[in-house]
Amino acid sequence: MQPIGFDKKKATELLTKKNIDFLIASSPENIFYTSGLPTRHSEYNPILFSLSNLTPTIVVVRRDGEDSVISWLIFDPKFTWIKDFRGIFSKDEAVENLVNIIQESNIKEPAIAIESVMPLYQYEGLKKAFPNAKFESADDIFLKLRLVKSSEEIDRIKKSTKIAEKTIMAMFDELKVGITDIDLLKIAKTTIVNEGATGWDHITMSLGDSDPEAPGTGVKMKKNEMTRFDIGAIYMGYTSDVSRHAILGQIPSDVKKLIDEIVDVQQQCIDSIKPGVSTLDILNVAQEAFEKKGEEIPLFPTCHSIGLRCEEIHLFDPIKSAELTFQPGMVFDLEFWVPYEPYNNRLIGMEDTYLVTKSKVERISTLDQKLLVK
After folding, report:
1. How far apart are CA 39 and CA 27, in angstroms?
2. How far apart, in whole angstroms, are the C-alpha atoms of residue 162 and residue 192?
3. What is the C-alpha to C-alpha distance for residues 333 and 190, in angstroms, rounded to an integer?
4. Across-strand partners of 351?
5. Is residue 2 part of a domain?
6. What pairing do the DSSP bridges indicate for beta strands 84-88 and 67-72?
7. Do 18 and 99 lie in a common domain?
8. How far apart are CA 71 and CA 78, in angstroms?
9. Is 90 exceeded by the pLDDT of residue 65?
10. N vs C: which end of the chain shows fewer Cβ within 10 Å?
11. Which residue segment(s) compose the domain that 269 sits in?
């Protein structure tokens, strides 16, 4: 069994550069990334996720690239490529093994990078055992490691994206007057699983002016109303993120105009992206292109990398992404939104997934970049 995307050499280089002795994974996605163990909530049997409060899984990566995993003793170690598997039955045993792994290095004042989600009892155990240790944040380290995807990761994201798009179309096919958001949620979840995904990252949806972030209230679709389907499936650990708006009836002319303008701005951005181009330069392209449209409403441009999480790094963040450039192997979502007053200023827009190659940008999502009309 080989790592899916985790690169030991790259990890060693990054830890050496930051002078970190140990990198500790605590979150389900980073444990999965560094070990391959099925710790996500969407696994076929998410037993490690369910038992994490009692028998946590922890991965320790040393600066030299060697690694260890602590997990439930009963679980079969064949599901990980890490050779040093340490089985436990309790939280206390987890901390004991974590301390032992670091003590075995004979580093008296280790530099340890931990995730912000590490449970307090684990941090306190480390602090007690190593009072002179230097603790650093592991969050940015993991995000940098995960930013450029392997070919296997890209294949999984592509498959996940196809499932998300099939789900959008399955919901659209059943769209009719009187159908409820609950009915559509059932269609979405059934389609996602039937198409081979293990679960969903998100099912964002609105009918009319209902809240897209909180579907499932029983609201019904009406004639000449608009709905939004924003789907993220999870396929073999990797998620997707595709969004389309659909209209049941007549398309308002101003809505069509706004969507066409957004698609045009999005394409101008894609045409400007090449390896080495600053992510913030593309933000400027988006803002300037939309300003030239002459609209009096604001544009909300978003660009985020995608992989084990729907939104890994926000590439238009002027602080965290100030030094980031587009690189071959990066997979990202580009989504532009504008408020639409007739629907209580709910946002309307377009969202697609892209891959940076050595010479260009490839659109992974395949749905037509337009409103779905029925």
Report:
1. 9
2. 10
3. 25
4. 243, 335
5. no
6. parallel
7. yes
8. 12
9. no
10. N
11. 151-373
